[in-house]
Amino acid sequence: MSLAESEFSSALYLSEREVSIEPLSFFRGRKKFKAWKNLAGFRLNRLNFQTRLVIADLQPWQFCTLLGQRTCQARESVDSSWLANCIKLNEEFGFGEASSDSFPSLNEYLDRGLVNPFWPIIHNAAVTVQKNSKRSYREVDVMLRAQLGVIEQLTRRAVILKLHVETTLNDSSEVDETAIFRKFVDAFQNPEVRLNFFRAYPVLLRSVHAKLESWVSTTEEFLARLENDKASLHATFGLSETAVIERVVSAGDTHNNGRSVLILFFDNGSAIVYKPRSVD
Fold first, then answer.
1. Which of 60, 82, 148, 154 is most open to solvent, judged by the fewest CB atoms within 10 Å of its CB?
2. pTM (whole model) above 0.70
């Protein structure tokens, strides 16, 4: 499926969109342009807005035009493999109960219901880390738990809005709110329901995919460094080379493509702090 020709085109980043030569688009976009400039991060430091334009490789008039376009057209160089991958995973998992024997933390979040539209993509990301890092499912599950909280924050508003809309539109005699919610969540066992949710929230789909792609990369990097530094960690901090990660806490914001400081707690009672960049 082509990103440029599908209902997923609104997920295109600004730098991926073709600027159309249409005067009305420019004038429609002027109001949105002003609203962008007045966002707190840009208003407090005007240099941030100029930097944003440089990153997107856009002139102010192009930015206005893009904001005013009624339809999004992709540049020829756009890579839409992320979309093809999401749709393929959705089809491969097919119809069935949303659950995972390998990752208990995923099951906990699936019971809560807010990440369910994306569970095939989440499960695949966790399996990818396990295969590439050759670490135990238990350790990968510990790393996954913290990321699931991030994904749930992303999806919360859209899933709850979808629930409210469907509850309002459906004339049902059901009064048990728990039963209504479970019926709504269980519907995501159907790949077509998940795909329709993707169509309704293409920007959210790409955001979730990007978060998971970054998590896979940074987690594999961390686990490789942990393995390579086992002897040094034992010599310096007395950390047993057979110690297993039991809990991970992310300390602070993410930087440099999703990396962040991690506080690691091990099954033997040890704890260390991991900083992605050198402290030198």
1. 60
2. yes
